[in-house]
Every structure is written in structure tokens, then in C-alpha cells.
Amino acid sequence: MVKLSDVEVGKLFKYQYGPVTRENVKKYASVSGDRNNIHIDDDYADQMGLKGIIAHGCYSLAMVCQCLVDFIGKGGELLNIYGEMRGMVRPADDWLISLTIESIEDDIVKLSYVEESKTLIKIEKDGEVIKSFEADQRGWISEKDIAKGFLKTEETAEGILHYRLREAIPGRAKVRLEK
Amino acid sequence: MDMNPEELKEKYDYFIGKKLATKIHRVKSKNMVKLAELLGSTDPKYIGVRREDGTVDLSNIVAHPAYPALFSVGDGGAAFDVTGWRFPPKEGEEKGELLIKNFGKLLHTAQQYQYSRAEIPIQHGQKLTVEGVMEQCYIKSDMLWLVVRLFARTEEEKLVVESIVTTAVRKGGWE
Asked: CATH homologous superfamily for B5-27+63-169?
């Protein structure tokens, strides 16, 4: 939870949620009533050329709402939110949400945000792949991902983790923060 | 025959200002809690207060900010009405052509929720009436863009949320 005294224009706040699971995507389909098979049936999603199910865009936006709820805490209030659905999110992805303070007027804070999906691809050690994730096995990584520089690496205890970091939902919000 | 931009504009302007079919949504605490818990919320405001006997008091919960999507978009949402919209029939036609010809080409593009305009929060037992109007309908970058504004009100005519839903239809879905 963040108070008004904790924020200043330009300050960045980072949050991480997930991982997305097939079970939770199905739960979102159930509670939202959006039971399109591209969200719940891998075979159908394959037939649609999606290489497996994708999470609802509304589910990813809902996680931004939750992030803002965590940000403002019990003393604050979410006044509005706007988001553009740009990138697909899949099972095993994490949601990484960055909030940037854009303006402060009294206790009203305007912010921009970017929700990114982190997709694990593989872990390599001494040039050998020692672990391969679904993204690697199903071919979720595209030439476009490579060309746009979305592929990243990081050192882990197991070896070098290869992952994709891609924009899912950028947007903006207005909140009232506790003084 | 391909239409020029002016002809396309004139064609799709037909839907601007058209009202969506009114959607009734009954707010149930079960769904409110399911959604909040799915998102990882632990705030009693959204999931209820656990009593000493283990039961949960849901009497004062309000809907999570993500809840309005449930009656705005998707198969059960008010904005879904546009998938059945048609142009006026041409001479000799029984029905006009569909605005969206292939539902599979439809993309949820953007959503906006204005909670600050709400007169009361969303709570269990409310029977919400969701009304909407098409604000924009145009072709850009080979896609059909639809922008609808929705208002959800209680039986007492109290606004609970105002939302704007933007949907795009890819090529092959509208022409």
C-alpha cells in the first residue's frame, strides 16, 4: 500500500503476479461467462492457429485492477482505469506491472502503467538446454519477438534463463491516495 | 466492389448513435467473491469477513473494480449485442448484411471504466440495467473499429459504472 507522501511525479512502482495457470483461465471463463473455446480448449485453440489457449484480455486487465487495489490500499480509491489489449498472455506467463506517477493534484494521482507478460522459454547450462518450457515446445516465440528485442536472458541457479518480455496492456489510471 | 473512404464512412456512419439492446445483470455475491479471490484479493471489502465460527459474512461486500467487465464485454456483456447488428436490407433482400461477418476476427482492443461517476457501489442483489450506444464506427488500417459507451444502473436508476469498450474486427470479419 502506498500513501500520498510516498509518491512523486516520475516515480516507478513495480509489481509481479502469476503465474497464469490453465485452471485460473478456466475459472475466469466461468465467472465472466466468456467461455470462448480459445480460452479453455487447447485443441480448439490449436485449430484457430493459436498454438494453445490464451488468457482473456479482460483477465489481464483485471490483474491491473488488482495491482491498483494493492497500490492504493484500504484508504485509497480507484477512480478510473483505461487499458489497451495489445499482446497475448498464456499459461505459465507472469504479469509484470509497472506504474509511473504522471501527476499529483491534492490527493488525486494520475498514473500510466504497462503490464508485460514474462514467458519462460528455456534454461541453458554450458551451451546445453537443460529445461524447456511450453513456449519453447509449442513454438510461441516468433520472428517478430526476436526482431523487436523481446527476448531476454538472466542468470539463475540452474543456468541461463531465456525468456520473452512483451507488452500486454499499456494504459492509464486515476486514483485517490490516503494522505 | 471496393468502396472509397468517403463511401465507407457513409456506410458505417449508419450505426453511430444506435442504441444497444438493454442487458439485465443480476449481481451475485458468489461471483463477486470468486472473481476477487481469483485475482488474489484478500480485502474483506471484496471477499467478506470471516467470522469466528468459520462462516463468512458477505453482507457488506462491494464488487472488485474488475467486476464491471462481466456485464460489459464477452459473451454475456452488453457490448456483445453489436455482433447481431445488420445494415438495412437492400432491395430484394430479406435481411441486411451483418456488421460483423466473422465473429472469430473480433478483438477486444481497449476498455475504460469510470468508477468516479458511480452514485453507489456494486453490491449483491442489485439488478443492473446496462444500456449503451455506439459512439464510433469506422474503418481504419483495414480494420473495423467499434466504440460503445455503456451505463450500468440499479433499479433505483443509480449509476454504478460508466464504461467505454473498443472492439476491432480484423480483415475477413467485416468486408
From this structure: Hotdog Thioesterase (3.10.129.10)
Does some domain include residue A23? yes
Cell readout for A45 is 485453440
Look up the CATH number of the domain holding residue A73. 3.10.129.10
Interchain proximity A80–B76, CB inside 8 Å: no
H or E stretch covering B92: none
Question: Where do the structural domains in chain B lie, given as residue ranges?
Answer: 5-27+63-169, 29-62
Per-residue pLDDT of chain B (175 residues; tens, 9 = 90+): 578 888 889 999 999 999 999 999 999 999 999 999 999 999 999 999 999 999 999 999 999 999 999 999 877 788 888 989 999 998 888 899 999 998 778 888 999 999 999 999 999 999 999 999 999 999 999 999 999 999 999 999 999 999 999 999 988 889 8
What residues make up the domain containing A31? Answer: 4-118+167-176
* B38 has a chain A CB within 8 A of its CB: yes
Buried (b) or exposed (e) across A40-57, using 16+ Cβ within 10 A? bbbeebeeeebbbbbbbb
Q: Has the ipTM of the complex gone over 0.85?
A: yes
- The 3-state DSSP composition of chain B as helix, strand, coil percent (nearest 5) reads 20, 35, 45
Judge: A61–B69 Cβ closer than 8 Å, yes or no. yes
Number of domains in chain A: 1
> Taking CB atoms and an 8 Å cutoff, what residues of chain A touch B69?
32, 58, 61-62
Kindly list the residues from chain B whose CB atom is less than 8 angstroms away from the CB atom of residue A88.
none
How many Cβ atoms sit within 10 Å of the Cβ of residue B34?
Answer: 17
CB contact under 8 A, B65 and A35: no
Q: Are A80 and B45 a contacting pair at CB < 8 A?
A: no
